[in-house]
Design goal:
The structure is a homodimer of 487-residue chains. The first copy, chain A, has 487 residues and is α/β, with parallel strands linked by helices. Chain A contains 17 helices and 16 strands. In chain A, the strands form four sheets. Chain A has an eight-stranded mixed β-sheet, with helices on both faces. The first copy, chain A, has a four-stranded antiparallel β-sheet with strand order 12-13-16-15. In chain A, strands 1-2 form a two-stranded antiparallel ribbon.
Chain lengths: 487, 487
């Protein structure tokens, strides 16, 4: 047996390690089958112009790893346990965790060319040029900082930049020591849940709510209390009468996913409720960066000095999901416990990303970037709404005033959201049934009846948006024809 | 009142935001006192050559933020609530969390010029050139990926690279689906603690153990069981007789902090114990990258196919602390729960750092880097030991065979580790008392008696190391003179 092995004498890697590595790959790749005999060490040495000792050492290594089995007087064989262990055991179990976005009942994502995803950003709006320039500058002037650990609560420079940004942008008067840099919204919620006793603690959430974030609270055994939303966000009239302590988690700028903006009157009522019940407000400031028709309302954290708001946000929508940086603004009384909780989770996040983001904000490039992206997204939103109106006349839409997605209430008599999603997929388009995506968390009327779909527009070009709506229109026409034919 | 405000008309930031920002800084910095009157808007406009409207808008903004209070017919005043809130409340509480490395009882770190820190890496060994080149390449060819979310369990490319690296390097036969990318060792332990029921679960740890990591287990209400170590690491003869289930967490390559390498006989005993007691081994592979005198022993994960080892490691020592990337190798039966737990914490870490690290490993640059750094650190270690021997004759050292620090057992009759630490600080040198740093976690004899100091050498140049030991020698001589004088 002549094996496809290449030994590179100039590579700097020892011959024995090279041989072991390539044999390992051949075995794990199934190119040498379980139970097969390997060439004898003399033959192998001769073929590859190696010393016999090198071959024996490689065989020994792979024997220790359980890939080879020497059998006395017979030679060396590939272990029979190898294949089963690698292929079935591992791969199958993993598939059930990864790739949850597309399930097998429908077409594969490869066939979807126009995806109205609501959790994806546009690659073409990422500030590549500026980011690249700032990275180079940072590496040139402070590159050695990458060698050092940083504070778990974040680079001081970035915390200052976030504090300075939030003042004018969100009306929050915040000192940098109140800013904790985290990996994103989820990590912020984990830090909060570790800073307070959570077991059986009531946590009011909006209904519907992001299932992933709800799961964070549940994983700490909190008692999650869903309260309905309408087109203006949380129904503050339905808040529980006597909640003692605990939390309320909400997305007042742009209710996720239904898109309402909480009016000032409800904000006042909410603050009063929290004060009376001694509850902490967790304000997820999602989507406040993109307000198309009116300036953003001042944040809840900015409206109150009562120190009962924890304000959280991240840069994944405004800059890019790959950056993985978020922040939490913690009232003074909670700083010590929040920092301690943060330090339990990790020692902080990527120095380079933090340093570059700090410069990006401080230099004014972030503000400029936001204005540019806002223009682009507004235009995509306008195209989407125009196209929907053009094809379907009067359309019932919520959430268009800000953020990067809308909620479309399907006309009476149409297929359900799930059904429509399935139909349009065969035309290469993806839209998202509110019921399907937020099922687990919802007692809400509109979600329960599955008559609404979520459509993100930020990651699609204007022409894709137009073509996508055209295809949805075609799918609906097909469906009508089928129905007509079957009657 | 003429305020020190500079308006930059070419900056791109609106005049109103510039003014508000600078006023905010003056107020928060205490340069304009609480209760003080601001100049009238006309006067301010005239001084700064701004329109009066711009000034009024800035004042309004700061009023919304609660920093200013307009009083009818009297003017605008700095709110009286500002100062107390910012200064006392926040700053004091924060100081108790941050900067724990240096306490106020001793000199300030500014006076320390030679720091034998054991948790810091050398800036001069960070692979700046290669890292920079790989960043540029990545940004040029795949920069738009920074716009997208990635898998919570890490970039596939990096997981593959880690799997390929660990095969030859640590003798672990691992499929990339078993690799989960994390922010570091601490995050890995959090993921493990969330993957299993931890309350009252026994977790054997080495004594001494890193207090920060011990705290992670305790924060999940695990029952931490310390077992003594000696010069060969964990005393496997002292393992509890009947532990049912649970975990054992250890650092077999280079016991942290005492420096022993667990011999093969103890490894075999440990694996047998874990098998019998149905316990999972958490192997922190710390410091295995730098073995100076002998090749590293095969890892515990590589020694066994019994699927009861979770292998964890990170790149902060081998590349740089600012990178914040670690990994866990999970046995197949635990993959699903570990991935789910990871996804609860965060959506993954910095795309750019992950992508660059993957290329760094795959291209062979990492292996080359390790060889280079190993040469440098070996030489620093040799200089340190030589200098100690030169000044103090026979020195009792452990942990020198690998890693980046040694443990020095002080000679009989010397001051305690804490005392010595304090003395040498006044000579501009820092060393670390084992007792002081690991007090909370230790019943261990050598730690209890405070006769050992930890000395890291990786972040110091050879000449600093020599000077540092010279200064320690001076401090000891001073002390002897003082004693002699007082007799």
């Amino acid at each position: 047996m002549q094996l496809p092995i290449q030994i590179d004498r100039g590579s700097g890697t020892s011959l024995q390690v090279q041989l072991a590595k390539q044999l390992r790959e051949l075995i794990l790749g199934g190119l040498i089958k379980s139970g097969a005999a390997l060439p004898g060490s003399r033959e192998m040495a001769l073929n590859l112009k190696l010393s016999r000792n090198t071959v024996l050492l490689s065989y020994d290594q792979l024997t220790i790893e359980g890939l080879l089995e020497p059998r006395a007087a017979k030679g060396t064989f590939v272990s029979k346990r190898v294949r089963g262990r690698i292929e079935s055991n591992i791969l199958n179990s993993v598939r059930s965790v990864e790739g949850p976005k597309y399930d097998c009942a429908f077409d594969s994502p490869a066939n979807v060319s126009i995806d109205f995803a609501f959790d994806r950003q546009s690659a073409d709006t990422f500030p590549s040029q500026t980011w690249r320039r700032l990275i180079l500058k940072k590496l040139a002037h402070a590159g050695s900082s990458a060698a050092h650990y940083s504070e778990p609560s974040g680079l001081l420079d970035l915390r200052q930049a976030i504090a300075d940004h939030l003042g004018p942008a969100r009306g929050i008067n915040v000192h940098r020591d109140q800013v904790i840099v985290v990996g994103g919204i989820q990590e912020a919620l984990n830090v909060i849940c570790r800073s307070f006793p959570m077991a059986t603690t009531p946590v009011v959430v909006e209904d519907p709510v992001s299932p992933g974030l709800r799961r964070v609270f549940e994983s700490y055994s909190a008692r999650v209390v869903p309260v309905s939303t309408d087109r203006q966000g949380l129904r503050t009239d339905l808040l529980p009468h006597h909640q003692s302590g605990g939390f309320i988690y909400l997305t007042p700028s742009h209710q996720f996913p239904t898109g309402g903006t909480l009016p000032v009157s409800r904000r006042a009522k909410l603050l009063q409720w929290a004060e009376q019940n001694n509850s902490l407000i967790i304000e997820n400031d999602q989507d406040s960066d993109f307000c198309y028709d009116n300036p953003p309302l001042i944040s809840l954290a900015g409206m109150t000095h009562s120190e009962n708001v924890i304000h959280i946000g991240d840069f994944s929508k405004s800059i890019g999901g790959g950056v993985h940086i978020g922040y939490m603004i913690v009232p003074p009384h909670a700083i010590v416990s929040a920092m301690a909780a943060k330090a339990i989770f990790n020692n902080g996040i990527s120095w380079l990303d933090q340093a570059v983001l700090a410069d990006f904000i401080k230099s004014g490039a972030y503000a400029k970037h936001l204005r540019r992206v806002q223009r682009i997204y507004r235009s995509r939103r306008d195209i989407l709404i125009e196209a929907l109106k053009y094809h379907f006349n009067s359309v019932d839409i919520t959430g268009q005033q800000s953020g990067t997605h809308i909620l479309w209430q399907l006309p009476f008599g149409w297929p359900t959201g799930r059904e429509l999603d399935k139909r349009v997929r065969s035309h290469g388009v993806r839209i998202y049934s509110l019921h399907r995506e937020f099922d687990g968390s919802s007692d809400n009327m509109c979600a329960r009846s599955d008559t609404a779909v979520i459509m993100g527009y930020s990651s699609l070009t204007e022409s894709s948006i137009k073509r996508g709506i055209q295809k949805i229109s075609d799918a609906i026409a097909d469906l009508a024809n089928v129905r007509r034919a079957s009657h």
